[in-house]
Structure of YfhD-like protein:
Amino acid sequence: MGRDEHRTSRRGRARLAQTPKYAKTDSKAVEFSEEFGDHHDKIAQVRRRAAEKRVKNKKV
Protein backbone atom coordinates (compact mmCIF):
# COMPACT_ATOMS: atom_id res chain seq x y z
CA MET A 1 0.00 0.00 0.00
CA GLY A 2 1.27 3.41 -0.90
CA ARG A 3 0.96 6.54 1.16
CA ASP A 4 -1.58 8.09 -1.17
CA GLU A 5 -4.14 5.33 -0.57
CA HIS A 6 -4.90 6.66 2.90
CA ARG A 7 -5.43 10.31 2.06
CA THR A 8 -8.87 11.83 2.28
CA SER A 9 -10.55 14.83 0.73
CA ARG A 10 -11.07 18.13 2.57
CA ARG A 11 -14.30 16.86 4.07
CA GLY A 12 -12.48 13.94 5.66
CA ARG A 13 -14.02 11.24 3.49
CA ALA A 14 -11.96 8.95 1.32
CA ARG A 15 -12.85 8.71 -2.37
CA LEU A 16 -14.38 5.48 -3.60
CA ALA A 17 -12.73 3.78 -6.53
CA GLN A 18 -14.73 4.04 -9.75
CA THR A 19 -15.15 1.24 -12.30
CA PRO A 20 -13.71 2.23 -15.68
CA LYS A 21 -16.18 2.26 -18.59
CA TYR A 22 -14.31 -0.48 -20.46
CA ALA A 23 -14.77 -2.85 -17.50
CA LYS A 24 -18.55 -2.41 -17.22
CA THR A 25 -20.92 -4.91 -18.81
CA ASP A 26 -24.54 -4.65 -19.83
CA SER A 27 -25.69 -7.61 -17.70
CA LYS A 28 -26.26 -10.06 -20.52
CA ALA A 29 -26.66 -13.70 -19.61
CA VAL A 30 -23.77 -15.72 -20.96
CA GLU A 31 -24.53 -19.29 -21.82
CA PHE A 32 -22.01 -22.11 -21.86
CA SER A 33 -22.34 -25.61 -23.20
CA GLU A 34 -24.17 -28.19 -21.10
CA GLU A 35 -21.06 -30.31 -20.62
CA PHE A 36 -19.38 -27.53 -18.60
CA GLY A 37 -22.37 -27.04 -16.29
CA ASP A 38 -22.57 -28.48 -12.81
CA HIS A 39 -25.54 -29.23 -10.57
CA HIS A 40 -25.91 -25.59 -9.45
CA ASP A 41 -25.96 -24.40 -13.07
CA LYS A 42 -28.76 -26.78 -13.91
CA ILE A 43 -30.80 -25.61 -10.92
CA ALA A 44 -30.23 -21.98 -11.96
CA GLN A 45 -31.44 -22.77 -15.48
CA VAL A 46 -34.64 -24.33 -14.15
CA ARG A 47 -35.25 -21.33 -11.88
CA ARG A 48 -34.60 -18.91 -14.77
CA ARG A 49 -37.07 -20.71 -17.02
CA ALA A 50 -39.70 -20.70 -14.26
CA ALA A 51 -39.19 -16.98 -13.65
CA GLU A 52 -39.46 -16.21 -17.37
CA LYS A 53 -42.67 -18.25 -17.52
CA ARG A 54 -44.15 -16.33 -14.55
CA VAL A 55 -43.30 -12.99 -16.18
CA LYS A 56 -44.77 -14.10 -19.49
CA ASN A 57 -48.01 -15.25 -17.81
CA LYS A 58 -48.24 -12.06 -15.77
CA LYS A 59 -48.14 -9.80 -18.85
CA VAL A 60 -51.04 -11.58 -20.56
